[in-house]
From TrEMBL:
SUPFAM superfamilies assigned: P-loop containing nucleoside triphosphate hydrolases (SSF52540)
UniProt name for this protein: Predicted ATPase
Gene Ontology BP terms: DNA synthesis involved in DNA repair; double-strand break repair
Organism from which the protein derives: Rhizobium hainanense
Signal peptide: none
């Protein structure tokens, strides 16, 4: 399923913004304009379907930190809202989900700074009109049952608990489960640690790994899966050689653990272990594992992937992004004009320039409907 549109309101610098989305979505802008808040809003939708929205908002300082701090109209309630629309291309059907969260009222159950879920809804449109599959107001949940009618769910939700996670776990509501699995499969790569203790530099258990973990901890197993199970690393070898001065990836047949190294052309008789590689080398290998794994997630989001990379690595990175875009929807936040131009040349994706307008995050040239003017810059 493809993410077709997103909406965010009252989250940090996102006063109210809606965007139509495409196969490759490329965002560029200066520091402090809110690019990462757009990225983070999708992460919070995923956190909602996983039942971790309260945990994620609390980890960034709680509701006081997460909410829009600018002026509000007198009739507006102080609530964060996220909406997403997913297109199920196989069935030509659309899932629409939205969630609103606000502050816990005085005396209510829960902790002071965690969010309280105020309302939530999931609808499905596979015919002439959308059908509500689940609706939540406060603690009460209504769900469409086997008879096709809306009925009260037997349990009430805790104030910080999301209904989509509660019902998705129940196993009785296939459309809710389908939506939840689709969003749960998104992957967000917010850079990789490159210090000495980075998971990228450590061996991992030798377990078949078709997809990279978000922290990169199974990178060696991802490379071993490509090398020894899929048996096809031609394109991976090409981009690594192009980015790293002719280097060659070496992946021994794993036993209890999986490992890898690099053989550099100036030292043909030695394999350099991950702990010996530079920050740029190990970060590029992490991106290669994310973008060229055996199985790609439906959505790959990269936040400033150019960090620590030598300029010579940006063109091979754009090549990997273009290759991944054949199977996955791509979301990129970047400062690099060079990377943005290279991705545009390969994917035809026009960069969306993120700006601040009246204190809130906006996309240059975007209409209020979320459509971005298509004229060339």
């Amino acid at each position: 399923m493809q993410l077709r549109s997103m909406f965010a309101r009252n989250y940090r610098s996102l006063r109210s913004i809606r965007m139509d989305l495409s196969d490759v979505n490329l965002f560029i802008g200066e520091n402090g304009v809110g690019k990462s808040n757009l990225y983070r809003s999708l992460q919070l939708v995923q956190a909602a379907v996983r039942g971790r929205l309260a945990h994620e908002i609390s980890s960034e300082g709680g509701m006081f930190s997460a909410m829009w701090s600018g002026k509000r109209r007198s009739h507006e309630s102080p609530r964060i809202r996220f909406d997403v629309e997913l297109l199920d291309m196989e069935r030509a059907a659309t899932f629409r989900y939205w969630i609103e969260a606000g502050m816990r009222p005085p005396g209510a159950a829960g902790f002071a700074l965690e969010p309280e879920i105020k309302a939530e809804e999931l609808s499905f449109e596979g015919g002439r009109r959308p059908v509500t599959m689940m609706k939540r107001e406060g603690a009460g949940i209504s769900v469409r049952g086997e008879t096709g009618r809306m009925e009260a769910y037997r349990e009430q939700a805790l104030p910080s608990e999301t209904a989509v996670a509660l019902l998705g776990d129940a196993g009785h509501y296939p459309e809710i489960g389908t939506f939840r699995r689709a969003v749960d499969a998104w992957r967000f790569f917010h850079g990789f640690r490159t210090d000495r203790g980075s998971p990228l530099r450590a061996p991992c258990l030798a377990v078949t790994s078709p997809m990279l973990d978000e922290d990169g901890a199974n990178i060696a197993a991802v490379f071993a899966t490509l090398t020894h199970i899929r048996g096809d690393t031609v394109e991976l070898d090409r981009v690594i050689a192009a980015a790293l001065g002719g280097a060659r990836l070496v992946v021994p047949a794993p036993e209890e653990t999986a490992d890898f190294g690099l053989m550099l052309p100036e030292f043909p008789n030695r394999v350099f272990q991950p702990r010996e590689l530079s920050d740029g080398q190990i970060r590029f290998l992490g991106l290669a594992a994310a973008l060229m794994s055996y199985r790609l997630p439906p959505l790959i989001a990269l936040n400033e992937p150019e960090a620590s990379l030598h300029p010579d690595m940006l063109t091979p990175l754009a090549d990997m992004i273009a290759q991944a875009a054949k199977n996955s929807q791509i979301w990129i936040v970047t400062h690099s004009e060079v990377l943005a131009q290279a991705v545009r040349e390969r994917c035809g994706a026009r960069p969306r320039r993120v700006i601040r307008e009246d204190g809130s995050t906006w996309i240059d040239g975007m209409r209020l409907t979320g459509v971005i003017d298509d004229d060339d810059e």
